[in-house]
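=== RUN LOG ===
request id: a7f3
mode: sequence -> structure
chains: 1
length: 208
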Amino acid sequence: MNLLVLISTLFVIGSVAGWIIELFFRRFVSQKKWMNPGFLTGPYLPIYGFGVIILFVMSNIPLNITNEVVDTIVRIIIIGFGMTLIEFIAGLIFIKGLNIKLWDYSNRKGNIMGIICPTFSLIWTIVGSLYYFLANPFLVKGILWISDNLIYTYFIGLVVGMVIVDLAYSIHLATKLQKFKEYQNLRFEEFKKEFKARIKTISELRNK
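=== RESULT ===
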């Protein structure tokens, strides 16, 4: 299967599935209300897309370890490290680059810059383990099925294109808003609330 198609398929599956998971998590656990959990406008979270790519690669790449138990343990450790690294890089981009806090672990022990912490690194490792044992075999079969039905790759390409356009548009708007001091260093939910209020004000002024 073409490497680009493989990566794109994993990215789309992870991005959409991650958005759905976060949607219900915020509704029933954290925010207690329905809200778009993503930085983007559409129903996808790219960070989860990259996460699934890492999970897939780390779950299937040969490690040349003869002992099956040791092989599994090493894979799980690498998976946990990889997921934490993705979270750290994404946090640096948004918190340091755009001054938008998608999450904040500052109040948790052992955190680094409020971006990563031992608690959530453990959570990502557990999630990665569940993926490795439960989801990976089915995903491998799904990828092979898509490789035999390449017409579905057009849908994958369409979604990837939408994500790229959406990302460029959202970063452009966020960069403009961050020029105003009152919008700097806001939590993500607060940023979206302020953003919507400002757009509403602009629309009302134009209609007068």
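=== NOTES ===
The longest helix spans residues 118-148.
The beta strands are 100-101, 186-187.
=== END ===
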